[in-house]
What does this fold into?
Amino acid sequence: MQQPRHSSTTTAVLATVASLISTAAWSQPQPEFAACIARLERTALDNGITQQTLDTVLPTVEPLERVIRADRNQPEFVATFADYLGRRVTESRVERGRALYSEHRSLLDRLTREYGVPGHYIVAFWGLETNFGSILGNVPVFDSLSTLACDARRSGYFTDQFIDALRIVDRGDVEHDVMLGSWAGAMGQTQFMPSNYLQYAVDGDGDGRVDLWRSTPDALTSAANFLRGIGWQSGERWGREVLLPDDIDYGLAGRDRREPLARWRALGIADVAGRPIPAIDMRAALVIPSGQSGPAFLAYDNFDVIMRWNRSEFFAIAVGHLADRIAGGATLMRPPPEHAPLTRDDVVRVQTYLAENGYDSGSADGILGSRSQAALRALQRDLGLAPDGFLSSELIERLGLSAE
It folds into this structure.
């Protein structure tokens, strides 16, 4: 085993961590955080980060308890679809998005030609991530990334992001104290994680540097480059709201099951005007984010691309719907109904119940992903319910799993 390097940086970090006021510090024992920072330093050196950069950055790093709280309570995990969409695709945001689309039309048209991503989608990402560059986040990136790297839940991923953030400073792109962002370390007007910054950030205004914080052309061009890089299909939309026939088999729903549009058309699925959907050569998944009483969507390949940006069906629908609205589209034909919000503990109890009763729901992590939804649909079918994969408080109560 490689022995720890007792550099002046490590000594300074230990002193800094030891002096943190308990109310401002993370609840993890301080010696453990200090040991983690020393591990991150060794990993950074092994990955070619210079000692000068480490001496500049590491003494400033502090653990943040609020980052851990945010990680455990992400809105994609605990909000209802009605609440999530209602807070993000607002009339004021649609109007602002249309105005900015017009203002930056020349740039956006060029990005569409060069990268194949229509401008209204780029503006939608911009609007959802930072409210068009007005809310960039105020958390020091190195604080958030080190906190998450030292937390067991996703330590490996955030260790890599921490090293990549150091690499951005090391190569002289930006000063470390400028690197403010979200609680998870996402940065700039389009909220790039450090790894995505290194791979996809580009100079969009021709000034010879990349600045995702202060340059809108850099941010929007980088977003287009990122979307192309993760598989955006030029000439295709994200999906569409659809109307379902009364006799639809909800067991066909779920992002893990894709069917040709001709199949969905044959089942009687129509567009919001009541016309049969076109039977073109494409495949789509039926997504029902708030159960049979809410809106339904056919999600195309670009829906999955959006989810490579943010792995949340709610986020992907919000991006697609906001993009449609910016381009002149209407509000949803069938707005999502209000449901009582669930907690992650609610989901964990249901996942545990599913596993204990022979349904393959994966790990009980409090996140109702595609595997858990498939298990939930199987349970609903066995109970004689519509297998829409939607977890309601009524179902939790029926299973006897309500919190005491």
Remarks:
- The beta strands are 139-140, 180-181, 239-243, 258-260, 270-271, 283-287, 296-299.
